[in-house]
Structure formats: structure tokens, C-alpha cells
Amino acid sequence: MRARASRAPLFQIDMIKKAMAPKFERIAPDERRARLIEASITCLAKGGIQGFTVDNICHEAGTSRGLITHHFGSKNALLAAIYASIYGKVLENVARSEMTPQSIDELVEMIFRDSFLSREYLNVWLALWGEIAVNPALQVEHRKNYALYREHIARAISAFARGKGVKVDSYDVATILISLVDGLWLEQCIDQSLLSLDRAKDLCRRTLSAVLMGST
Amino acid sequence: MRARASRAPLFQIDMIKKAMAPKFERIAPDERRARLIEASITCLAKGGIQGFTVDNICHEAGTSRGLITHHFGSKNALLAAIYASIYGKVLENVARSEMTPQSIDELVEMIFRDSFLSREYLNVWLALWGEIAVNPALQVEHRKNYALYREHIARAISAFARGKGVKVDSYDVATILISLVDGLWLEQCIDQSLLSLDRAKDLCRRTLSAVLMGST
DNA sequence: CTCACTGTTGAACGGTTGTATAGTAAAACG
DNA sequence: CGTTTTACTATACAACCGTTCAACAGTGAG
Fold first, then answer.
1. Closest nucleotide C1' to the C-alpha of B28
2. Which of A22, A170, A190, B115 lies at a C-alpha separation of 20 to 30 Å from A5?
3. Cα separation, A110 vs A108, whole angstroms
């Protein structure tokens, strides 16, 4: 028997290696949380809030079903963490511009370059909006985040509006721009044949310059 | 025994009446479908797509659980019927204006008077958008409906733009206006403290007049 | 190497999901 | 008034939901 074992074919060795390999990876809680959030976003993108199930998420993340409760407490808490993660990156994007955009073109380009303004994230945003509107804790956080976001846009508008000698309420214009971008993006996501990304950008630029010029 | 029965107290008569009353109402299929659609919209508004369950809907409509399958075939078919019902009313609203709006104010007022642009319908729209983006049959129908909607808005814009002697691509302006309204409405729904309805209307009017004036 | 810590697993739970179906009864018809 | 039609109810079903929890095992400390 012992001799036979020593002549074991290679595939048996592979099987033994596989059997002896660790059954799971043990990583730092923060890293695991990040992976679960990433997997959740993938699930949300694929199936909307209906695809946002413990089974789906853990399968996507390659873990067992118990981990969500262990690391987040509940599925709802996970959704809140997803919101924080996504909005954090959105704010990063507008804050990252070391220099404030110097022209309308640059500003529009900055807003649209956001990676979360991609069609695959439509379902993610729909789910988040629905949750924010209902969840008071998220609503408070959203209010702060939105204010920060608009602050950045308004500052850029105010900067190059002053440069051109026009006088506008930069917060009003920022609100218009943000809403217009959201609306255009939404329609473009729902049916891409209605509107291309380039045309959406073009409409933004034209609207923005009209609003800035029209009010001397 | 017979004598005893003739002296039955009044509450017993009530109980007999109640027991003899029809156990359910038998109405025309179209009417029943309309009621189920109405109940579904209520459920969607209350709990989003998560509240859109057979149990919820039938309880809201006061029927048993079998009726959705019987009248619509499946729950998804019901959602499609809901879309058709809502978008039909939206189109009615813009078509109802016998006279095309003669000013920017009138146009903005016409768009915002739509009963479905109420905050309680946020969850309904979020659910519908998510479904349209995923369901090919709905997407085809939506493309036609959106085209009709934009056609109405564009015609109005073109009419009083010509009256003022300015020359614009009325479809571009209509797209801008619709997107802006959608975006402003969305932000206002998500957090009402950020934006009031009156301010949203005001921003619309100012944007629209700027776009129309700026291009001679 | 051994031990303790804790990240991770996986089964089990009560409850809910959408749909199919057999049977009931309301209402129209002759 | 009896008959027929079919809108409607009510149960059953398998699949799936989020959460709990006891046991397991990877990993670093000693």
C-alpha cells in the first residue's frame, strides 16, 4: 500500500493540494466590508433592489451567507454603507480637481466624467434614491453630501462667471446644472436611443452658457 | 323553538343579514383590472418595488390573492399595465390643453400641474424606470410615449418662440426642459428641504427664457 | 509547536414570495 | 325559476427571504 501511494498520479497530488488548501480566506474586517459593498453594487446594478439579496451578494462576493450580518449587522445597514461609499467617491471626483474648472466645457466635462454616471449604475441609483427618500438617517447624511456637492459646483460657476463679468446666483445655477445633468442622464439611461452622451453634454453646455449670458 | 326564533333580538338579525350578504362583488373585468392597478400604485407609493407584492396589492384592493394571475396573467404583466395607465394619464395632461400655452409661464405650469409629479409617486416612478430599463417590451412602448410627450412640448415651444421672433431647435429645448423638470422634481422628492416646488418652477422659467433668448 | 482569538461557515428557523388549481358562488340568461 | 357562465375565493406548493447561532478553522502571539 505504501509503495502504491508513492506512485500516486499527478492529478491525485492536485486533489490533495486542493483538499489541503485553506477553505476560506481570512482578511481584515475593513477589507471584507469593502468587498461585500463592491459585490452588492454589482448585484444592484444587475437586478435592482430585487437582486439585492443576501444570497446574491454573498455568492457574488464568494463568501457564505452569514457574513453580512456579522460585518454590517443587517442588510439595511449594508445599503447605508453602500450609499456612503458611492457618494464618497462622487465627492472625491469633484474635489479632486485641484484647479477649479476655467470654462463651461471643463465644468461639464468634470461632472460627466464621474464613473458612477454610467448606465450600469442606473439600478444602483434608483435603489439608493428610493431608500434615501424613506430612511431618515440616510436623508440627513444625503442633505450634507448634496450641500457639499453643490458647494463645489457653485464655486466653479462663481469663479468663471466673475471672470466673464457676469453676475449670477451661483447656487441657483448649480442647482439647475445638477438637476439638468441628473435628468438628462436618467432619460439617456432609460432609453439610450433617445439621447447620446455627447448630445447630453452639448445640451448642458448650451443651457449653462445661455443661463450665464442671459443675466448680464 | 319556533316561538323563540320569532323573538330573536335585533343583533341576531344583523348577524343573519351579514351572513346572507354576498361574500364578494362580481364586476366587469375591465373595472376589476382598473381597481387592481389603482391598488398597486398605492402599494408602490407606500413601499416601492418591495411593497409591490401579490399579498399587499390584493389586500389593498380587498380581493383574494388569485385575482392578479386571473386578470393579468402574472405580476409582471400587471406592472406593464400600470405603466400604460400612468403614462396614458401623463399624455392626457399635455394633450388636454386645447390651446397651446402662449408663454413660458403657462408651459411650465402645464408640465408641473401633472398629478403624477407629486412626491408620493416617487417610488412609483423609480420602480417604473427600473423596469423600463430592463424590460424590452416596455422600452419599445416607452420610446413611443416619450416621443409623443416631447412632441407636445416641442410644439408649444416652437409656437411661442416663433411669435417672439427667435429661432431654436424646439426638440433640443424640449429635451432640456423635460430633463430639467425631471431632475428638479427628483431632487425635490429625495429631500424636500433642498428645494421647494415654487423654486423649482422658478428655476425652470428662468432657464427656459435664457435658452430661448440667448439664441436670437 | 501550542494556544487563544475571531473571521468565517453552513445548517436551521419562521415567514413570505408568485403561481397553479380545484372548487364556490354571484349574476346574467332563457 | 332553473341553468349556465365565469368572476372569484381559498388552499397548496416549492422556492426564496433575512436572520440566528453553534461549530469550524485560519492566523498571529507566545
1. D7
2. A22
3. 5
Domain residue spans in chain A? 21-73, 96-216
Q: Which option is the CATH number for B84-216: 3.90.1440.10, 1.10.357.10, 2.30.130.10, 1.10.1240.10?
A: 1.10.357.10
CATH class of A96-216: mainly alpha
Rounded distance between C-alpha atoms, residue B204 and residue B157, angstroms: 13
Smallest CA–C1' separation from B25: which nucleotide?
C26
Chain A residues within an 8 Å CB radius of B189: 133
* CATH superfamily, region B23-73: Homeodomain-like (1.10.10.60)
Interface contact flag, B146 A206, Cβ < 8 Å: no
Query: In whole angstroms, what is the distance from residue B135 CA to residue B101 CA?
Result: 35
Q: What is the ipTM of this complex?
A: 0.88
Q: Would you say domain A21-73 falls under CATH 1.10.760.10? A: no
Sequential pLDDT tens for chain B (216 residues): 444 444 445 445 555 555 567 788 899 999 999 999 999 999 999 999 999 999 999 999 999 999 999 999 999 999 999 999 999 999 999 988 766 788 899 999 999 999 999 999 999 999 999 999 888 889 999 999 999 999 999 999 998 888 889 999 999 999 999 999 999 999 999 999 989 999 999 999 999 999 998 654
